[in-house]
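agent: user wants the structure for Lox6 from Arundo donax. delegating to structure tool.
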Amino acid sequence: MRSPMCCRINTHACMEPFVIAANRQLSLLHPIHRLLKPHFRKTLHINAVARQIVVGSGDQRKNGDIFRGIHEVTYASSKYNMEMSSKAYKSWNFTEFALPNDLVKRYVMHGNSPVNN
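agent: tool returned. relaying tokens verbatim.
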């Protein structure tokens, strides 16, 4: 199942736990924290805005009108968005989307390359 919702989960939503864990567990002076900070800086804000604008919930009010997200207007109602999101999230597997498995899955690298042996 490929949908805009799957894309959001596979790229944006899956990063939230890592951002939160890094901010909670790593010292501000830790080299990994310093390396990731520019990449994680706006991740949570972007995801929050995306949940409101792109996904929407159908019950948000904007200027007295019911505001529906872009997905709801162009793709599916919020009920079906949540169903698709749940199915995509249940099938999401960290190792499947990690390198080198992701490269093999997308036919960028052969499964029998020296990296996998």
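agent: one observation worth passing along. Residues 78-91 form the longest helix (14 residues).
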